[in-house]
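Input record (Table S2, row 326):
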Amino acid sequence: MKALVTGGAGFIGSHLVERLLEAGHEVQVVDNLSTGARRNLAHLEEDHRLQVTVESILDQAYMDEAIKQADLVFHLAAAVGVEWVLQHPLGSLETNLRGTDIVLAAADRHKRPVLIASTSEVYGKNDGGPLREDDDRILGSGQVTRWLYATAKAADEALALAYWQEHQLPTIVLRFFNTIGPRQTGRYGMVVPRLVGQALANEPLTVYGDGKQTRCFTYVRDVVKSVMSLAECGSAWGQVFNIGRDQEITIDDLARRIVELTGSCSAIIHVPYQDAYGPGFEDMRRRVPDVSKLRRCIGYAPDTDLDEALRQVIASHPAGVAGIAS
Ligand SMILES: NC(=O)c1ccc[n+]([C@@H]2O[C@H](COP(=O)([O-])OP(=O)(O)OC[C@H]3O[C@@H](n4cnc5c(N)ncnc54)[C@H](O)[C@@H]3O)[C@@H](O)[C@H]2O)c1
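Output record (nicotinamide-adenine-dinucleotide complex):
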């Protein structure tokens, strides 16, 4: 099979590419390297089955041809990260709305199945839980830039499902919850790499808000394993899947765990959301996936617990190679 991976030089994309190659497939990557990097694929460069093209998914003619050449499309390219989206609202909307439209329209023309990356952010302020795929989305005001990413991703989901309903284009929506692992950068607001970097530098770990908000973190290898299994599961087409682990942790406890595992002498401090992201920023208190649908469909059982995932992140950090507390 020849797989096209948009955003394949990014964090999750590069792990997916690795796994597709391991499974014996040919892989074409399209990435504009805005938040991704060539070095994420450097260890795979010798593999002749991998082709990397630095191009934007907004180039319609290029995407049409690339999708025509592929058997299956994994659409992961997106403007990602709270900080990145707040700083580039217009470009983020263009990539996440128009980019997905271009990918799905080309896939429809050539009848190529597509798995598209969405996000737990689409649940917005719904902090009940565990969240099921058909639960309500509770979004804040349309004037709060923070919800722009969720709004665009929800529109992407709707588009993918409409193509399935009206044109029988096989699509699957992958609703990723917080994913962590080597090669994730902390530069655009991702909490784990940011806190790990601070701990390894023995700087204070900056926890935004009161630190009592909870999240669930999943190791990237478990995530890409699920994505691959869904692509092979005939009954998954036309559906939405939560992809994550349902073990919940407060950000305060996460920060403490990172301090312990790195053997750091850093303090943990709280920074008001307003100071981190500007006035009017809103966050959700809790975000836990119900993964029973994923379990039923592919027998999902993640292999890696949070401590092991954190150890991998620490070990892969340039400053973390020195040693990890057990
Ligand atoms: N990491 C997470 O916890 C998480 C959670 C929910 C959803 N997601 C989704 O998963 C996908 C992958 O995210 P990630 O965490 O690997 O982020 P990432 O930033 O590492 O990957 C996104 C990739 O898309 C590329 N890209 C951006 N705009 C592009 C364009 N116009 N043309 C071509 N390439 C472009 C970037 O260069 C980058 O390599 C995204 O769709 C994201 O919304 C991620």
